[in-house]
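User: I'm curious what two different proteins look like when written out as structure tokens. Can you demonstrate?

Assistant: Sure. I'll show them one after the other, since each token string lines up with its own sequence. Here's the first protein:
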Amino acid sequence: MHHIVELIRSIPIFIYTALIGALSTLLGVFIANRHNSKMLDKRLEYEKNQNEYERRMKLREQIYFPALDALSKIQEYLVLFPTIDIKQNSDYFNVNGITEKLNKIEIIGNKQTIEAINKTLYEYTHSIFSLFSKKLVLTSIEDDIENVDSDIEQLKQDETRNYENLKLLGEARSQDKEKWTRIDDNLAILKDIKIELLQKKDKLEEKRYNFLKNFLLECNESSIKISNLSLDTIFAIRRELGLYINEVDLKKMSEKYAESINNLYKQFFENLENEFAN
């Protein structure tokens, strides 16, 4: 033990200094490497999160923008529903892929957004079934009017043919009274039938007008309901994307717009009825 102590004492002081410097350097390198390693891990984690965020945002862009366009198309579609030919259009529910675009929101949307879009789709489905049943009735009325028009046209042709036969008889009327009388009776019968058909058409036209009036109003109301629900969906999407807006003010603006549209519809029909009355 004594020899060891003497050996340590015999080592020059600069060697101790060198050893301490080397150890300090090694410790510094170790600390620096550890720090760089942590920074690299954080950087990789940040880049990973950033890439995931950008991927999700891009996916949202690919889904949300077409979905928002579909919400607008739904409102337009409901307003124009009375003009749709259900005999030619079998895909009246998912026209232009509307529901497909909206259903895709469930792939990427959060709970609030999915709930909002599901409420919109439910109301849209309910509206379509209700409006479709009324469209069937309206189509039936229009078919009846078309059939009456066809009968009236046929009567006109029969009248023309009978009048031509009378002209052919001409001065021979006194010689062929029986034939003349028969043709004359036919014309009288055709006239009575024509009057009945015209009266029937008038009633059908009135029925169609009243039904169409209520139908258009219901289509407009359905469109406004979808508009309000669409606004909730838009709010949910904006909150999800961090694009906040004064929702209360925008809601009031939407309600005011809906009220003005309703007033326009009512004013239109009032003016129309006044025109008919005069």
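Here's a second, unrelated protein for contrast:
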Amino acid sequence: MTEAGYRPETVRFRGVGRIVEAERETFADSALHCVRVEGAVVWRHVLGTPKEVTRREGRHGERKEVVLEPVRRWLVHAVGDAAFRLVEQNLRDLTGLDLEAWREQARNADVHVIAEEDAARWLSTITGPFDVAQLIAEIEQRLPAAGPHDRAVVPFTLRKALVEHGYDVLGVVFLPSF
């Protein structure tokens, strides 16, 4: 429980960013539910895994390079007076018979769900509400599982976004103009 007596709840959703696979008793009667997260998105970060790709250069040239393939993303919604919800989204994978059928159709293809509607490709976990300090602590607690580039930039980009949206962030130094 937090000081306000509120225990952050965790809910999973997919499809159009709203269908929920519940992890709490309230949703025990069904596996899927619709949820709408209110509030503006004040920060987002895409996490990726390294993937080697071959790029064509001209008629005969090729070069290999490493790119980060998006597999997870974090979104922060402002939901009230300095309160936030964190939405962590992971790419959905095909499973079971769907995966077997896909592998027959497209050998060596990616196993992630493919959809024209981007939100349908993600399975999300919603946590919060958090105040500014709790939000920063929650995200930084998740950083060890992220990649090295994410660990390098997330502390800065998160604080920058919060400050730019008018929130007071402990440890950010303001230098007044003259």
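A detail about the second structure: The radius of gyration is 20 Å.
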